[in-house]
Design brief:
Helix content is 11%, strand content 49%. By secondary structure, the chain is mainly β. It is globular and about 45 Å long.
């Protein structure tokens, strides 16, 4: 019975990490303005992309599997986005586990962005940086932004 639960948990974690349970793939834009730098050992990470409307309601756009150290995508400028980073792992002792971090981002035209996604020693973190046309980087508060 326990072995069956462990195997089922492992399969679920793998399916979600592969983007199967997260739905459709994010419809990428030609202009890449977001670089996602991922460093995760012992876990899989996916990023759900949602558009936030004027009432701060989230509308699901798609999922990106963060299976490489660097992935570049395009987010529409001047449109609030909610990025949902989901970390999935599995261990024989505790079974499958999941952790979620959210970040809000309002990309501006002419700017680039970096999301730094890290999992190390059971610590999960997501940080956002905005880089202007001159190359000046500024750490962003990824919590509440533009009234949401």
């Amino acid at each position: 019975m326990r072995a069956t639960r462990i195997a089922a948990g492992a399969l679920l974690a793998l399916a979600v990490a592969a983007g199967c349970a997260g739905g459709k793939s994010y419809p990428d834009r030609p202009e890449k303005n977001l670089r996602v730098l991922t460093s995760a050992t012992g876990t899989s990470v996916v990023m759900g992309v949602h558009r936030l409307d004027a009432n701060c309601r989230a509308h699901y756009e798609g999922v990106v599997t963060l299976d490489a150290p660097l992935i570049e995508i395009g987010l529409p400028p001047d449109q609030m986005s909610l990025l949902v980073f989901e970390f999935y792992g599995f261990s024989l002792m505790s079974g499958s586990r999941a952790m979620k971090r959210e970040a809000r981002l309002l990309p501006r035209a002419g700017h680039r962005y970096e999301a730094r996604v890290i999992y190390k020693d059971s610590i999960y973190s997501v940080g956002l940086v905005e880089i202007d046309a001159r190359g000046t980087a500024k750490e962003l508060d990824s919590g509440r932004a533009a009234g949401c």
